[in-house]
Write a structure and sequence with these properties.
246 residues, alpha/beta, two-stranded antiparallel sheet
Length: 246
């Protein structure tokens, strides 16, 4: 088996642990700052309804965050700015994710890349919720690229590669373009590995292209997938698998 040289990581419900976010605390803090303490139970209830609508908090984040502003917060942009700040403070890393990333980058010499279905326009490092999260948690320096359908960005220099705009994880075009880039570095598909939770975007498309797949089940377990090579319920298990692959 070829040794892994490239590692991609999904963000929502995988690297980030949405279960660490507590809505009453967040909306309580926001209400104090905007002087609307009476709205806390209303906001909490609306957020609950939104999560039910899109199945999870990550489902909201990946394409419907504008509804937090329009529906939950009644269009209050000041409250939304505070929400964005508080979200980054209160969200946590998935168990073992930080330890795994440092080990992979510093001991093994592989800086992983975040591969995410970002919906909004790609800006500078820290301007979107994902890279801002990495900056706040002190993890951005351990990652190489932020790869999305909005573009690819070098997290060390901020350089962007707009040719990724319009690609998709689900239909595989993002992985096709990424493999073209990796081939220029001498990295073959069998030397690539991805860690994610969703069959349709993280597991099946890369497996069809020859990658090794690790299905993360720590937050949502979608059950066995024929395209999954390994399963891991936390990042300590991911590390145990990766030790065999690098």
């Amino acid at each position: 088996m070829a040794k892994i040289k490239f590692v991609g990581i999904d963000y929502g419900q995988c690297y980030m642990a949405p279960s660490t976010l507590r809505n009453p605390r967040m909306f309580g803090d926001i209400a104090k700052l905007v002087g609307k303490q009476e709205m806390v139970p209303v906001w909490v209830d609306r957020m609950r309804r939104l999560k039910e609508k899109y199945k999870s908090y990550s489902g909201i984040k990946e394409g419907h965050k504008d509804e937090i502003l329009s529906y939950v917060l009644d269009g209050d942009r000041y409250a939304m700015d505070i929400f964005n700040e508080k979200e980054q403070e209160l969200l946590g890393l998935a168990p073992g994710a930080g330890e795994f990333t440092v080990w992979l980058a510093e001991k093994i010499g592989i800086k992983p890349s975040i591969i995410s279905e970002l919906k909004k326009t790609l800006g500078p490092v820290g301007s979107d919720v994902i890279t801002r999260f990495l900056v706040i948690k002190g993890m951005v320096k351990y990652f190489r690229y932020f790869i999305t359908p909005q573009g690819k960005m070098d997290l060390a220099t901020g350089q962007q590669f707009p040719e990724y705009k319009g690609t998709s994880k689900e239909n595989g075009t993002l992985y096709d373009l990424l493999m073209t880039d990796l081939a220029k570095e001498g990295i073959a598909p069998e030397e690539c590995c991805i860690i994610g939770d969703k069959w349709s975007t993280d597991i099946v498309p890369p497996k069809q292209r020859g990658w090794t797949t690790i299905q993360y089940t720590g937050h949502i377990d979608l059950g066995p997938c024929p395209s999954t090579d390994y399963y891991a319920k936390d990042w300590f298990e991911v590390k145990a698998v990766m030790e065999k692959l690098v």
